[in-house]
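Subject: Interface between my chains keeps coming out wrong

I've been trying for a while to get a sensible model of this assembly. When I model each chain on its own everything looks fine, but I need the whole thing in one frame so I can look at the contacts. Pasting all components below, labels as-is. Any help appreciated, I'm running out of ideas.
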Amino acid sequence: MKTGFTDPVLDAQAGFRALMQAMARPGRVQQVIPPPELPAGLEAAAAATILTLADAETPLWTDAGEEARAWITFHTGAPLVAEPASAMLLLNTGATMPALATLHAGEDETPQDGATLIRQVTGLAEGSGWRLTGPGIEREHHLAVMGVPGDFPAQWRANAARFPRGVDVVLCAGGRLAALPRSVALREGG
Amino acid sequence: MTASAHMQAPDTDPGYNFAYLDEATKRMIRRTLLKAIAIPGHQIPFGAREMPLPYGWGTGGIQVTASILGPDDTLKVIDQGADDTTNAVSIRRFFHRVAGVRTTTRTAEATIIQTRHRIPERPLTEGQVMVFQVPMPEPLFKLEPRLAETRRLHALGDYSLAQVKLYEDIARQGEGGSSYSHPVMVNHRYLMSPSPIPGFDNPKLHMSPALMLFGAGREKKIYAVPPYTSVVSLDFDDHPFRPVRAPHACAACGSTTSYLDEIVTDDRGGRMFVCSDTDHCAENQMARKAAE
Ligand SMILES: [Zn+2]
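Reply #2:
Try treating it as a single job with all components included. I did that and got this:
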């Protein structure tokens, strides 16, 4: 079994601060402290996010392979669920992304129950790409994302339209991550 | 399962986990904080833990601080603007002991500022996080004692009741902005209590570069205002909200823009006005000395 964080306490704290910054400043790319070893199919930022957030209280769906699934269970104790709609956390590493509209979005009085989708992508770059506006953004941020479905912007518009219900997304590439809280508006092509 | 043994920061008390809370509690609070940031102004219940300080000492704020704090942080704690009250000193000592974290009284040096009832005068920066101690998180509690009903009103965004009540209060008192806990609309969606800060501080919440986190220990709620988020004090065309300060200059630094506390100076009714923000006042005094 591959190890988890070198220091489970301080590395989780650093992982959380990266996630908190990412969620508070949508489109700004953050760096994580990489776990020293990674199971096949998981990159550092996605692995660190899982170690930071997942535990026995967080039903988790993933399409990652056997080694990653065993690693998640061993280090976090998170119950793995078969249906994306039943998950509180989703770790999506494959080419296909579960449609945002099919994930749990919370209820009107409990929108905080909306799921968090952690999506491993192939590239993240600030300064070009999607134009983001909303809470956390002074004027606008630009974020280029490689490795999401072509209809992601349309899916995101539908997700944002049901605010305060909705899904929040963490995009991970290598050891870097950026977040899209449901409150953010996304437009394509600058 | 996860290892429980770990390295302590060099000068912390080895009898505690880093920052006192156990890791499962921190994870739960951290997940709650991320959702609070994603839904600005929405109150989220959390499994508050007993802390080694009594309620009223900011146990909600302490749990939020404990969940975000790391060894690279510099912590400032204020109580009504002052760093030197028993409450502020105790909280600062607590975190120094259980997390070995650097503490400061200087707003400019702090990365995390835990506060009871004030926002510093010095403009905050993107590198800073404010943590508010909240006694009563529900802005509708005086109008609607049933929590289930307040949840429904927030879900609907139906704040007509609050507006009627506030209008009556303002019409009676004459002015909006002179009281504490003046409710605000966050991101044009949720009505939120800014905690018992003076109305004078409400505008500092609007489009602040800093992240604002709110923790209510007794009521077990967490909420947040992200940076650069619209925060508008509830008001009316005929009673617009105006931040109010005592119309004096600070007796110690001469400031005519800072929020002032009135201090009784003798038993013959003598009084003076000084900055509530002690660090700001000290900075002003130093600048004045340097200019002389
Ligand atoms: Zn002064």
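Reply #3:
Confirming on my end. Helices of chain B lie at 23-38, 59-68, 86-99, 147-156, 160-173, 278-291.
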